[in-house]
Amino acid sequence: MQVKAPDRTAAAHRARSARPARPARRPRPSAPRWWRSRKVQGLGYAAPTAVFVAVFFVLPLLLVGQMSLHDWPLLAGDRGGNAPENYADVTESTLFWPAVRFTLLYTVIVTVVLLGLALLLALLVQESRPGAGFFRTVYFLPSALGLASASLLFWGLYSPTTGPLSDVLEKLGVADGPVSFLGSPTSALLSTVFLIVWKFAGFYMLILLVGLQRIPHEVYEAARMDGASRGQIFRGITLPLLRPSLALSLLLCVTGSLLAFDQFFILTKGGPDNSTVTVVQLIYREAFQRMDLGTAAALSILVLAALLLLNVAQFRGLRRADES
Q1: What's residue 14's pLDDT?
Q2: Which 8-state DSSP code applies to residue 55?
Q3: 294 class by beta-carbon count within 10 Å (0-12 exposed, 13-18 middle, 19+ buried)
Q4: What's the CA gap between 130 and 137, in Å, rounded?
Q5: Transmembrane: present as a keyword of the record (predicted)?
């Protein structure tokens, strides 16, 4: 008599059927219909930035505007409106117009020298050749240093008693005695310009280098095949196609130079004889030395208005150049 082997398949089926059934997954709640709109999503994503700008820019700007129309000593607080007395006091100050002229002169010198040197450095390290990466890093390294720290470093280098530059010039026979790099208006200005160029040349070189690398190599090859010289290629191809990067560099350089404060405050403190006082230094003097926040706020509003007008003029000029 043969005994039939148990049907394993049937046994496994019965075991699976005996297990308790898994509960069905609940469908995920769908997002509300109003959130599915891209406009609403965009507003939601931009809300944190909008709040940040409102709290740290718009509200302080409104407060400065209010202070510029009131008699507002630093320690006494608001004493009531006095418009437009604060603006009249600013323009009648003996340091206002000299500070404006010096700031504009400093801006022109720094912009021309800094952007010219940055473009030259970008052209030198444009090609991927041996050592190009090393020099790019070396040129950019000073930009990693804070402006206040760089100013303190150069203040020590420029010191005629403890700084090494004066001793080096004496040993080379260039100078007969200790050299005062910050002792005259001209030398103080040029010494500060050298500091700014040393620190920011690598930063602007990087901006221009990115613009240079975006220019297709085929354009250069076609120009060379047509017999164009290096000067013609630079004037006809490089500069026109580099215009967006140059525009950004020009905007940043001009704005930063007009708002110069740290370097002059640390190196010269406005001297000698108030010859290196910038507009922002004048705001600092009005607020924290003369204790008049109203006049300082009025001067801040004037500087903001000048920067807005200048930026609008730059954008319009660049737009016309692109359209032509």
Answers
A1: 59
A2: I
A3: buried
A4: 13
A5: yes
Of all residues in the chain, the percent with pLDDT exceeding 70 is 87
The pair of three-digit structure tokens given for residue 179, joined into one six-digit string? 């050299």
What are the pLDDT digits (tens) for 194-252? 999 999 999 999 999 999 988 888 888 888 888 888 888 888 888 888 988 998 999 99
Q: What is the full DSSP assignment across 63-114?
A: HHHHHHTB--BTTT----B-TTHHHHHHHH-TTHHHHHHHHHHHHHHHHHHH
pLDDT at 127: 81
- Which residues on neighbouring strands pair with residue 70, listed in sequence order? 81
Taking residue 301's Cβ as centre, other Cβ atoms within 10 Å add up to: 19
- Residue 84, preceding bond cis, omega within 30 degrees? yes
Closest to 185 in 3D by CA, of 277, 282, 281: 277
Q: Provide, for the chain, the percentages of residues in helix, strand and coil under a 3-state DSSP scheme, each rounded to the nearest 5.
A: 70, 0, 30
Question: Tokens in use for 177?
Answer: 């005695």
Q: Could you give the count of Cα atoms lying within 13 Å of 70 in the half-sphere of its Cβ?
A: 15
Name the pLDDT band for 8 (thresholds 50, 70, 90).
Answer: low
Residue 26: pLDDT band with limits 50, 70, 90: low
CB 204 within 8 A of CB 253: yes
Give the model's pLDDT for residue 133. 86
